[in-house]
């Protein structure tokens, strides 16, 4: 069963600072459990979690679907379906 994985890195780091994995079957409910600060950061960057839900439903997308680099915070967030 695929899962949605949200990983945040500090610039230049290989080891992730935060990783959240959500099984695709519970993503609709689990997205409400994403830490508020990360959810707000994703919204600021134009990430629509409902769109990710649609990709899961299509069954066609696997791998990295979005990378967001915040140069002010020196952070990178990667969203993938694995």
Describe what this molecule looks like in 3D:
The chain is of the alpha+beta class. It has one domain. It is 28% helix and 35% strand. The chain has a 4-stranded antiparallel sheet with strand order 2-1-4-3, with no helix packed on it. The longest helix is centred in the middle third of the chain and has 10 residues, at 49-58. The radius of gyration is 12 Å and the shape is globular. It starts with a strand and ends with a strand. The relative contact order is 0.28.
Which key terms come to mind for this protein?
4 strands; alpha+beta; 3 helices; 82 residues
Strand content: 35-45%
**In terms of structural class, how would the helical and strand content be classed?**
alpha+beta
Q: What is the helix content? A: 25-40%
- How many domains is the backbone divided into? 1
Got a strand count?
4
């Amino acid at each position: 069963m695929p899962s949605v994985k949200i990983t945040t890195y500090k610039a230049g780091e290989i080891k992730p600072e935060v990783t959240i994995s959500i099984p695709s079957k519970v993503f609709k409910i689990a997205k409400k459990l994403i830490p508020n600060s990360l959810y707000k950061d994703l919204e600021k960057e134009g990430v629509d979690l409902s769109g990710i839900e649609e990709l899961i439903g299509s069954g066609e997308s696997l791998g990295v679907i979005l990378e967001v680099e915040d140069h002010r915070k020196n952070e990178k967030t990667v969203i993938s379906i694995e």
